[in-house]
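Dear colleague,

Following up on Tuesday's group meeting, I ran the structure prediction for the two-component complex that the binding team flagged. I've pasted the input sequences exactly as they went in, so you can double-check that nothing got truncated or mislabelled along the way. The structure tokens for the whole assembly follow below. Feel free to forward this to whoever is handling the docking comparison.

Inputs:
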Amino acid sequence: DTAVSQTPKYLVTQMGNDKSIKCEQNLGHDTMYWYKQDSKKFLKIMFSYNNKELIINETVPNRFSPKSPDKAHLNLHINSLELGDSAVYFCASSQGGPQSEQYFGPGTRLTVT
Amino acid sequence: QQQVKQSPQSLIVQKGGISIINCAYENTAFDYFPWYQQFPGKGPALLIAIRPDVSEKKEGRFTISFNKSAKQFSLHIMDSQPGDSATYFCAASYQGAQKLVFGQGTRLTINP
């Protein structure tokens, strides 16, 4: 039973398109995150939500809009995709914030052509 | 001040050897130091974590050494195995912080 799941696993799209990535966790955690991992493997936090409330927006362009319909879901919508958006996007969850173990999803590899 | 500097960027160790990855930080408020392990095509997973009230924590072949005065901490993998080949990330956070600050990652390869 997957703890943190993401769909799709791969996403190939053209510049200018709009796309969404979905994330669900079945751990009962109260905090969810989106991370971006670039080609050099650097992990950068984008957003975090606690009980559906936005906690962190780490200077991410307005084209990225997270949505948390409930505690178990945190989706990421990206408008007007750019080449530089190509990366692996990870969803993660934890109970009690960043000093608790974070459980990462399998990642979504986004390729913008 | 929010940075965590990790080295080396890549590391090759022979099977059975000791792998050592180092991290340094500036923010003295940091009080939680986890290490995450990431295999190719997978998400990172917590490997081991330490708080500054102890200088060392060991779990199996994995040990974190922590030097508060030097503001450094390191991961030691004893008897390294090919299955340990992965990317390792150190990270840091403090009470009340809203995020983990990750190091740049170390790609570890264990040669058989």
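Chain A has a mean pLDDT of 94.

Cheers,
M.
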